[in-house]
Write a structure and sequence with these properties.
Elements: H1 2-14, H2 18-23, H3 36-55, H4 59-72, E1 76-77, E2 89-94, E3 98-103, E4 113-119, E5 124-134, E6 141-148, E7 161-168, E8 174-179, E9 218-221, H5 233-246, E10 256-262, E11 267-269, E12 275-278, H6 281-295, E13 303-309, H7 326-338, H8 344-352, E14 355-358, E15 362-363, E16 385-388, E17 392-393, H9 404-416, E18 421-423, E19 433-434, H10 438-442, E20 447-452, E21 454-455, E22 463-466, H11 467-481
Parallel strand pairs: 1-2, 4-13, 4-14, 14-20, 15-21, 16-18
Antiparallel strand pairs: 2-3, 3-13, 5-6, 5-10, 6-9, 7-8, 7-10, 11-12, 12-22, 16-20, 17-19
The protein binds manganese (II) ion (2 copies).
Length: 484
């Protein structure tokens, strides 16, 4: 079958004029002519990816999964590493919400590092710090939320949600919470309004306000506690449950980080199972693919580094976002392994000579909303990893804008290794826009380019990717880590 497909493709190619073959850019669907061997590789790689998405729903859970995978492939906690030689594998966790992993290369760090940087935070509903209340009329207990990142709030109502996070108790101990993923566990929901009665309220609102921020309350209980004297018996029943299960009291919510995310596993999408649907693919697709690429390395020429950051979805600030010094400190720690008294200039040189893929997702054209894209410069699912020279909006404002030289280097690397890739920018020039962590990495004087997987329905509770794109993203990172 594959041979037949290949022959058909060759015949199509033969029909082109010599000039067409020489001058025109090749743009093709990857599934078309994919060999049986590659198809098998694509499908089995994506099983691992789906498993990663299913197990890592909350931010801290994703960080833990990455640490576990790192340790399983011989990476050691930096605190336990004393000496460095080519092939030494280390990782460092940033406050449970991000981490860096590196495989030391044959060349000195001051020759530069190959960095693939992704983010592991994803849009969600965070519980407020004083979330719990009992409604006076219905006597239902609810949890107030504050959405995190760019969400279309109405998409998050009337779907099953699970709770994931950590609570720091009065005794200083941290307890982890995960409720709603196991089939025998309850789920939670933001109740929406029935269409029979929405005419004067929701039906008149603009889309961003169909569900307003203060409407995003999560239904958490309806049974009163059996206590004659108590006032808010349903609220008290919730606290009683939390106290028995986690040792929590109401004040503990203030020192908690609890996320409500869509419940359920990642699934195949389409009758051909060619796509994947799941929460959190932005940007866990690049996290997983870079993790798989770096754990497969033996001894690279240049040091290979995979960085997983938090807070991208809300502007990259804070000590776990890319604007933090964490990354630079980690590179400093790597230098210190061979020279504890390394000079500041050595760190600056290592960063300045580094090359970086800012690996984040891009928008694939949604066939029902083509008008927001300029199709010639937009990404399509099923056409390989997307390379983006600049992000930003309205006149390239706040864009990283990779140099033609660096774009050329990456493009030629992908072509040489036969990694399927495409060029893509976010949307029409005046349509809107968005940024990534690229510009913050560029501040360190390194070459940075955006490269990642195209998604349909980005930031929705169920985002869609193409399996061949996930695989080609992995292949691209694998090749990039080999760059000398
Ligand atoms: Mn992203
Ligand atoms: Mn995003």
């Amino acid at each position: 079958m594959a041979a037949k497909k290949r022959a058909k493709k060759d015949a199509k190619e033969d029909k082109k004029s010599k000039l067409e073959k020489k001058l025109l850019m090749k743009e093709e669907m990857i599934w078309d002519g994919l060999s049986k061997k590659d198809e098998k590789a694509v499908m089995s790689f994506c099983e691992g990816y789906k498993d990663f998405l299913t197990k890592g729903k909350g931010l801290r859970e994703v960080a833990k999964l990455i640490v576990a995978a790192a340790e399983a492939s011989g990476f050691k906690d930096l605190a336990k590493v004393r000496t460095a030689k080519p092939g030494t594998k280390v990782y460092l966790v940033n406050r449970g919400k991000g981490l860096a992993m590196a495989v030391l290369g044959k060349r000195p760090l001051t020759d530069g590092i190959n960095v693939v940087a992704s983010h592991i935070d994803a849009p969600r509903l965070d519980l407020k710090q004083k979330p719990l209340y009992e409604d006076g009329v219905t006597k239902l207990a609810l949890l107030k939320t504050h959405y995190y990142g760019g969400v279309k709030k109405y998409q998050w109502a009337s779907i099953p949600l699970s709770l994931h996070g950590s609570v720091v108790l009065a005794n200083g101990k941290t307890v982890d919470i995960a409720i709603g993923e196991e089939p025998d566990e309850p789920v939670f929901v933001v109740p929406d309004l029935l269409p029979h009665l929405w005419r004067q309220t929701q039906a008149k609102r603009k889309a961003p306000d169909v569900m307003k921020g203060e409407d995003m309350n999560i239904l958490v209980a309806s049974r009163p506690l059996d206590d004659e004297k108590a006032k808010e018996k349903v609220k008290l029943a919730v606290l009683d449950h939390l106290n028995r299960k986690y040792g929590m009291v109401e004040e503990d919510f203030i020192s908690a980080e609890i996320e409500a995310v869509p419940t359920g596993p990642a699934r195949d999408v389409g009758i051909d199972s060619s796509m994947i649907g799941s929460y959190g693919q932005d940007d866990r697709v690049c996290a997983y693919t870079s993790l798989e690429a770096i754990t497969g390395i033996k001894i690279p020429e240049r040091t290979a580094l995979a960085l997983f950051v938090d807070k991208e979805e809300i502007g990259s600030d804070s000590n776990t976002g890319i604007k933090s010094r964490f990354f630079q400190n980690f590179v400093g720690d790597l230098l210190a392994l061979s020279d504890p008294d390394y000079a500041d200039s050595a760190l600056r040189r290592a960063l300045a000579r580094s090359k970086c893929l800012s690996s984040d997702v891009n928008a694939g054209i949604n066939p029902s909303f083509k008008e927001v894209h300029e199709p010639q410069n937009a990404a399509l699912i099923g056409r390989g990893i997307v390379i983006t020279k600049f992000t930003g909006s309205g006149g390239k404002y706040t864009a990283n804008d990779a140099s033609a030289e660096f774009v050329g280097e990456i493009r030629n690397m992908l072509n040489k290794a036969k990694v399927p890739w495409q060029y893509g920018a976010l949307g029409k020039v005046d349509e809107g826009g968005g940024g990534t962590i690229a510009k913050h990495l560029a501040e360190l004087d390194m070459d940075v380019i955006d490269a990642g997987t195209a998604l349909i329905s980005m930031h929705a509770p169920f985002e869609i990717s193409s399996k061949v794109d996930v695989w080609s993203t992995y292949r691209a990172f694998e090749e990039f880590f080999k760059v000398k």
